[in-house]
Specification:
Elements (H helix, E strand, L loop, with lengths): L10 H11 L8 E2 L2 H7 L2 E6 L9 H10 L3 H6 L1 E4 L3 H13 L3 E6 L4 H9 L3 E5 L6 H12 L2 E2 L6 H18 L4 E5 L4 H13 L4 E7 L4 H8 L24 H8 L2 E5 L1 H14 L10 H8 L9 E6 L6 H9 L5
């Protein structure tokens, strides 16, 4: 962690985003588990963003960003690129705000996420994530259509919106010693870290990535943004290749560490949530819980630990197959 320069997003931005989301976004409950507490020696508080509108925390950032569009921008519409949850969030937000939306999605995006994005009214354009430059393609698509590009994570209004989930966690759960947050491009982690710094300055903030896609961990260690090939991981929402120009300095300044977990640990965490908590959480959404259950966070005895469960958009056949061992990660 570094001394904080002038960061691109402030806690005041998160407070303003939270006000915009009132009556629009859900305020998912905090869930607890005596079994989880007994296994970890900690008091664990789970922020269930799998119960958010569009099935993931991404709705917060998408709606906050789109709600600030000018009338001209609303008429022209919004473009984005996403493997699924941001796509759905942009599509739903655009529908609520009465604007057109086009979404660039990888050809191997989960079918359930493609169907939901289209169901909310957005146009879907496909690309090959292993050969195409997503950022360049998205910018080109937005320019061709005359639309405003809202990327999945590297956007100040998106980051501010995502930070509202942790704001609610602190407000509803009380003081925390550790906050555990999944990490893809860094929008949620950076926003959460800003909220933590404002509401509980002594709280340790930990990001969690899949083992196959630890570009954030490498970046934090190297002191600069590290780019990696598209990671092969079950956590499709964390298949990012690098952190953002806005998210990285916030993570540098406000996040204490980044750990990784295996795909096998994600499946085990999904099973725990389904069997013991009666909740469906997608693989990416289980990154924080998997780190907690695998011991990647170290000794947590006597500590109050908040974990953000980021989404629940997973095909039920795929979910069941992974838990039964009949589907390949």
């Amino acid at each position: 962690m570094t001394d904080a320069p002038d960061l691109p997003v402030s806690y005041a931005d998160i407070e303003a985003a939270h006000a915009r989301l009132q009556g629009i976004a859900k305020r998912p409950p905090i869930q607890t588990s005596r079994t989880l507490d007994a296994a970890t020696g900690a008091t664990v508080l789970l922020k269930c963003e799998n119960l958010q509108r569009a099935g993931a925390f991404k709705f917060r950032g998408a709606y906050n960003a789109l709600s600030k569009f000018t009338e001209g921008q609303r008429r022209a519409g919004v473009a984005t690129a996403s493997s699924g949850n941001h796509a759905q969030a942009i599509a739903l937000s655009a529908r609520l705000l009465g604007m057109p939306a086009v979404v660039l999605m990888p050809e191997d995006a989960p079918a359930i996420k493609v169907a939901a994005t289209r169901g909310y009214g957005a146009e879907v354009v496909f690309y090959d994530r292993h050969s195409g430059d997503r950022d360049a393609l998205a910018q080109s698509l937005a320019s061709e259509r005359g639309m405003t590009l809202v990327p999945p994570y590297d956007h100040a209004d998106v980051i501010a919106g995502q930070g509202t989930a942790a704001k609610e966690l602190f407000e509803d759960a009380g003081p925390l010693d550790v906050l555990v947050v999944p990490l893809g491009g860094g929008g949620l982690l950076s926003g959460s870290a800003i909220s933590a710094h404002a509401l509980a300055p002594g709280c340790r903030v930990v990001g969690v990535e899949p083992e196959a896609g630890n570009d954030g961990q490498q970046s934090l260690q190297a002191g600069h943004i590290v780019h990696i090939p598209v990671p092969r991981t079950l956590a499709d929402g964390a298949q990012t290749q690098h952190l953002g120009l806005l998210t990285f300095p916030i993570i540098q300044a406000r996040v204490q560490s980044i750990v990784t977990v295996s795909d096998a640990a994600l499946v085990q965490a999904m099973g725990f949530m389904g069997e013991r908590m009666k909740l469906i959480v997608e693989p990416t959404g289980c990154l924080g819980l998997a780190a907690l259950r695998s011991g990647a966070l170290g000794d947590l005895s006597g500590q109050r630990v908040g974990v953000v469960l980021t989404g629940g958009n997973v095909d039920l056949a795929r979910f069941s197959g992974l838990l039964a061992g009949t589907s390949q990660p």
